[in-house]
Design goal:
The protein is an alpha/beta fold. The chain folds into three domains: 67 residues, Winged helix-like DNA-binding domain superfamily/Winged helix DNA-binding domain (Arc Repressor Mutant, subunit A, Orthogonal Bundle); 109 residues, D-Maltodextrin-Binding Protein, domain 2, CATH 3.40.190.10; 93 residues, Periplasmic binding protein-like II (D-Maltodextrin-Binding Protein, domain 2). The chain is built from eleven helices and ten strands.
């Protein structure tokens, strides 16, 4: 027989998220509108109801135990989905569509979809569109914690809890260099200025360069394609960029072969209340 489900309150879960995301206890209490004492009591009750300790005491400070990450992930998901429901209920009461918080990687925002975003604003002036541009990993974090409603990002290598993705487009990644060596054998390419280690695109690029037989000596890193292009223009090395960004404004670079591709996806929260504004923008992006 399964055990009885713990009687958890959304407020207690909100307290847990606030404590983890805030620099100190007082800031967390202010963020959720309670006193530090009430915050402490609420988290003590959460620990009691979950039945496992969530915090370690280090002097006067309390830090989240590694074993409590599962509880934190559940709390983030529940708080975000409850926020979705509250926004939906508010829009329904007022009979309006309201706001739409969208996250995009830079290639999507300024390369693939700027005209779509401009047209969407003109066609739907009642929707308060707020755009956040960031790397894929940061956007997925914002999506899971409820800071944005949808994201256009690179397909993550592994499923992300609480997030569902749908293919949007596939874009080619090409080698760019300061001179004609980009047309020669891959063994002559490099050194490299590259997206940071751990980024979704970096792993795709490294796989492509390895298959091509190119040596991988990294001399500089940046999340910003414009910075990478500038460093190639200064002859610091070669890079790999989406074609839509490799040939935009800025220094004219020598282009080599396409060595990989990446899948851009539309990411939304699993189980979120239906948001008509999300559906409108999704159709515009696909159109």
């Amino acid at each position: 027989m399964p055990g009885t489900l713990p009687d958890l309150s959304i407020r207690q879960l909100e307290y847990l998220v606030a404590v983890v995301d805030s620099p100190n206890w007082a800031t967390a209490a202010a963020a959720v509108g309670v006193t530090p004492s009430a915050l402490s009591q609420g988290l003590a009750e959460l620990e009691r109801r979950v039945g496992v300790p969530l915090f370690d005491r280090v002097g006067r400070r309390r830090t989240l135990r590694p074993t409590a990450q599962e509880v934190l992930a559940h709390a983030r998901q529940v708080v975000a989905l409850t926020g979705d429901l509250a926004h939906w209920a508010d829009r329904t009461r007022r009979g309006s569509i309201g706001r739409l918080r969208v996250g995009m990687i830079d290639a999507a925002a300024v390369g693939h979809f700027p005209e779509v975003l401009r047209s969407f604003r003109r066609r739907h002036p009642a929707i308060g569109l707020h755009l956040s541009v960031a790397p894929s990993g940061a956007l997925l974090d914002e999506l899971t914690n409820g800071s944005i409603d949808m994201a256009v990002c690179v397909q993550p290598p592994l499923p992300v809890r609480g997030v569902e993705t749908a293919p949007l487009l596939t874009e080619d990644l090409a080698v760019y260099g300061p001179d004609e060596r980009v047309d020669g054998p891959a063994s002559d390419w490099g050194p490299w200025v590259m997206f940071p280690h751990g980024s979704h695109t970096r792993s795709v690029i490294e796989d492509g360069l390895e298959k091509a037989g190119a040596p991988l000596e990294i001399v500089a890193e940046s999340h910003q394609p414009d910075v990478l292009r500038a460093m190639v223009g200064l002859e610091l090395g070669f890079t790999v960029l989406p074609v839509v960004q490799g040939e935009g404004p800025g220094p004219i670079l020598a282009r080599g072969p396409i060595i990989a591709s990446r899948q851009l996806v539309l990411a939304t929260r699993t189980g979120a209340a239906v948001d008509p504004a999300v559906g409108l923008l999704e159709r515009a992006l696909r159109g």
